Amino acid sequence: METIDLKQTSDRESLLEERRKKLARWKLKKAQFDAQKEKALRNNIVTNSLEAKQPVEKFAVGQEQVKENLRKRKNELEKLDKRTSIKPSKKSKRSKRKEKISFEFDDNDEAEAASVFRLNEGFQKVPEYDDEKDPLDVFMTSLKTQEISSKTTSHNVGNILDVDDQMVELEGAEDENIGDTTDNFNISKIAKLKAKKRVKQINYSPEELERFQKNFYVESEAVSSMTDIEVEELRLSLDNINIKGTGCPKPVTKWSQLGLSTDIMTLITGKLHFDSLTPIQSQALPAIMSGRDVIGISKTGSGKTISYLLPLLRQVKAQRSLSKHETGPLGLILAPTRELALQIHEEVTKFTGTDASIRSVCCTGGSEMKKQITDLKRGAEIVVATPGRFIDILTLNDGKLLSTKRITFVIMDEADRLFDLGFEPQITQIMKTVRPDKQCVLFSATFPNKLRSFAVRVLRSPISITINSKGLVNENVKQKFKICHSDDEKFENLIQIAHGGNKFFDEGQTEIDGETSDLDETDAKAIIFVSSQQICDLISKKLTNAGIVAYAIHAGKPYQERLMNLEKFKREKNSILLCTEVLSRGLNVPEVSLVIIYNAVKTFAQYVHTTGRTARGSRSGTAITLLLNDELSGAYILTKAMRDDELKASDPLQVKELHEMSDKFESGMKKGKFRLSKGFGGKGLENIKSKREEVRNKDLELKKGNINNDELGHKSDRTQNEHVSEPESSASIPKLEYELFKEPTTHGSVIFYAKVHINDLPQIVRWEATKNTTLLFIKHETGCSITNKGKFYPEGKEPNNTADEPKLYLLIEGQDEKDIQLSIELLEQKVKEGVIKAANLSLKSTKY
Ligand SMILES: Nc1ncnc2c1ncn2[C@@H]1O[C@H](COP(=O)(O)OP(=O)(O)OP(=O)(O)O)[C@@H](O)[C@H]1O
């Protein structure tokens, strides 16, 4: 006889009771979830309705969709309810189908789908039942987890839904097509295709590829005539444009230099009143217009859209028109959010205007697909899309609606966001189906590693253009300025700073402009930069008279004196060095915590170089510019280089005046009245590069030795070799051969001159030696005149007789033998710098 185990019965009862409670709890949760879902769904469906429909109609459609979806879900829930009360031994057909759908999303849309899924969680995702676990528990846990995750990631969900709410659009699309018997789309087929979400691969054989033109850029004469140094300087002035990759065209400064159509020109300058190009436009437009793949890194709102839009329109216009059987597109712009996609689409239509040959369609999630399909069927030269929706459309009707076959231009706007939001798989898929020789452009505000590796895979020998407006000066240098209205006022300020400096140096601090800044407690040195030898001598005297000791060095002083002064400056604590900018190049005295720029710099390169004498390694420092109110270019450079917080911390009246001066210079530049000095380039520009390196890798800085003879403009073979880095050593730089002459003049004085033989030097050395910038620099530094003489004879050729022009040489003339010697020294130095720079450039060009 079977005995009843009372304990077992009561256990079962309590278990059942527990289950009943759980079921009640779950039902409550489900009801809440259902209500939330219904609300979300209503919002989405209402927003997703066709813009073209009247509001009442929209609402009616939305309501119908809500009801239909709710009916479906109710059925599903009833089934689920049943399943929760009996332990299912195997999955039902329905659950299988739903699981398939969820898998499909995971397969194709990864992060995006994962987040989108949350909207429908509880309905779509049927948990796996484990024999050991209570299915209700499993489901509750999954619901809880989903709820938690949807709470914790609500921000993301919001973003993603905003981005490309695929779940809604999937349902919407299916519903939209119900009853559309005339349409080819059959719901089950669409669902199947969407389930697979595989874009049809196209095999492009090189022979079959239709040729298309990418390069539309013809450099204008004004742009061609810019020297490398001018280009470098221009890039610095255009918010510090940094280029990587080879063969980047020079930046342009005028719309007229781009060969745009009259219509576009009228729109840009006449209607939109875009008087000048933004920095990214200046550099990206010629680069993209010449057919190159480009990575453009620039902050938001910097005018990136036009940078790719104008070249895109140009390319599309030159293409064979879409045939009757082709829907396009020719150009594809991918954007992460529907708002951005719409904005871009508006911009496209602004530029295409009434031109019927370029039609643009915007395809994003969250808007009715039917309208997009109808528009696409008519043919679209340009499609602006979010990646998810674009894949949806590509997979429709067996890929017959839209094909990637004729796409020759792909743009990814806000690429960092596209990747942040998990669109990489979709983009990769899209890119795989586009012809391999397409032009591809990627714009972004940042360039994370993920994007970098994608770019490496997809782009073909790209040019990267980075606009780094405030990264010109080492971030550890605090920049200040003082506008003075006379030379006397300026000198007074210098005295104040120097006195204050000396006083505060003793206390480990210095006071500038009434503000106290930290300085090295043990030693805090200062450098005063002046623009010429004469000013250096004059200020030196005036400082001595004012009781301030400043060790002066400039190229005109005898070598021994320079060396001695520099040694004293290094040895003595809280000392001051007074020097010309040129002589301080390469100067590495870590204790320098204050730089005073007494004569406003003329170039960005000079500014970066002079400010770079402080804040060595990981130290910080201050750079103060004393600016006369007519030194407009100096003001322009300062406004570009100073960071916002530095300007904010300055006297508002002074800032106002600085901006006025800068604006005056800028408008003068536009009118051709002013231009930034060509600068002396060479080392200064190399220094910018090393500065950038310095920020990236300060360790390198530590490896550098302290000042040596080379810094004094005196070169011995030993010191030169010590400075030779890898690329430098690969550049062979022969010594310059020269003859020195001394001749009496008719006035009884003596003239010195030298002939420097350059004809037989390697071409690069000859170029460097005869460059205008080199000659101007030497003239400026030494007061000697220097001119190109003779003519070039190729190897093996010589002048036949004395009547023939002599071989190419440089004639240096001066009042003093010392000046001539110095000129030759500086010439050698410039040649060396130029050759090293060229070697570095060619080395870099093979690196990208
Ligand atoms: N050269 C120009 N001069 C004046 N305004 C311009 C110029 N180029 C573009 N703009 C305007 O500046 C604004 C920002 O441009 P745009 O949207 O192209 O920037 P963006 O870098 O793409 O920004 P985001 O990344 O936020 O989309 C727009 O209103 C645009 O019309």
TrEMBL record:
Main subcellular localisation: nucleus
Domain DEAD-box RNA helicase Q, first and last residues per copy: 253-282
PROSITE patterns associated with the record: DEAD_ATP_HELICASE (PS00039), HELICASE_ATP_BIND_1 (PS51192), HELICASE_CTER (PS51194), Q_MOTIF (PS51195)
Residue stretches making up the Helicase C-terminal domain: 511-659
EC number: 3.6.4.13
Record's subcellular location: Nucleus
Catalytic activity: ATP + H2O = ADP + phosphate + H(+)
Intervals of motif Q motif: 253-282
A GO BP entry: mRNA processing
Keywords: ATP-binding, Coiled coil, Helicase, Hydrolase, mRNA processing, mRNA splicing, Nucleotide-binding, Nucleus
InterPro entries membership: DEAD/DEAH_box_helicase_dom, Helicase_ATP-bd, Helicase_C-like, P-loop_NTPase, PRP5/DDX46/KHDC4_KH, RNA-helicase_DEAD-box_CS, RNA_helicase_DEAD_Q_motif
EC class name: hydrolase
Basic and acidic residues bias (residue ranges): 65-84, 711-726
Biased composition, class Basic residues, residue ranges: 88-99
Gene Ontology MF annotations: ATP binding; hydrolase activity; nucleic acid binding; RNA helicase activity
Pfam annotation, one family: DEAD
Helicase ATP-binding domain sequence ranges: 285-465
UniProt GO cellular component terms: nucleus
Stretch list, region Disordered: 65-99, 705-730
Functional note: ATP-dependent RNA helicase involved spliceosome assembly and in nuclear splicing. Catalyzes an ATP-dependent conformational change of U2 snRNP. Bridges U1 and U2 snRNPs and enables stable U2 snRNP association with intron RNA.
Subunit architecture: Interacts with the U2 snRNP and HSH155.
Family of this protein: Belongs to the DEAD box helicase family. DDX46/PRP5 subfamily.
Protein name (Swiss-Prot/TrEMBL): Pre-mRNA-processing ATP-dependent RNA helicase PRP5
Annotated source species: Saccharomyces kudriavzevii (strain ATCC MYA-4449 / AS 2.2408 / CBS 8840 / NBRC 1802 / NCYC 2889)
Gene: SKDI02G3450
